[in-house]
Amino acid sequence: MIKRIGVTLCWLLIITVVILIGAGNYIYNVALNRSDEGIKLYGTEEAVKAVSALEEEQKRLQELTSWTGQQDFEEVEIHSDDGLKLSALYLKNDASNGKTVILTHGYKGNNEQLPEVTKFYYEKGYDILKPDARGHGKSEGDYIGMGWDDRQDIRKWIDYLIREKKEKTIFLHGFSMGASTVLMASGDELPHEVKGIIADSGYTSVKEELAHQLKHLYNLPSFPLIDITSLVTEKRAGFSFEEASALNQVKKKDHDLPLFIIHGDKDELVPPEMAQRLYENASGMKELWIIPDVGHTQGFLEDDEEYKRRLMGFIQEAMTAN
Asked: If you count Cβ atoms within 10 Å of the first and of the last residue's Cβ in the chain, which end, N or C, has fewer?
């Protein structure tokens, strides 16, 4: 009898493990495997669509599309440290102010997004680089790096701008996953040409963000599904959710670049408390703006004049600090 119970428990354990591994692979395939399908958790493109129903917004977007089409974007390529071909759009300003901004898009986005921000920076005299993150757009990669491997790709793009384009003053401005990418990059040693970082709607860590999404979308607890998926991700993509932490990166004291954290207080996809924790743990010059009554990555669209004023104010302060 005892032997039979033991065998039954062993089989139950084996079945449970198989189910959990299957669930981990399923979550990986939905959330991190490269695909145009699956759940789009967040993105500036969705924010643009949300406000584009109004007639005046339709007109504004048409004008924006027309402006974008008139610009002479150069398609440029580099290779990542692990051999992937990475693609970006580079726009040299005809009236350059000597500064460059790297704009990093969100989850399942591409470098054709963020047209309003692109136009604003261009009108202020900035040269602009808009990379496709690995696993997105024209960049190679079988998985979505969620900012962690992407942080090293950003460093390669910075080196490219310095070496090939002779850029001497660089700012990093990311949205959503792109915000977490530049936050994660901030913890590594960056060239002195990088003067500051702007992070709009970034998450603290991949583990916390996916746990939030699991609860928000499916009302499921994070344990043990996120932990199993992290093991699957480490096996298939080479990084764990534990290490992929913007929070740990901004805590580092050796690389205290000026940091501007922006977040909407109605953000349901990345909780605004994550922005507060990132700000509290960051070292060096830092600024936090929680925008009232604004959702995920919608700050520039909903309150563009204040956004522009604060953004330029931060950049001016960052230049003084450097």
From this structure: N
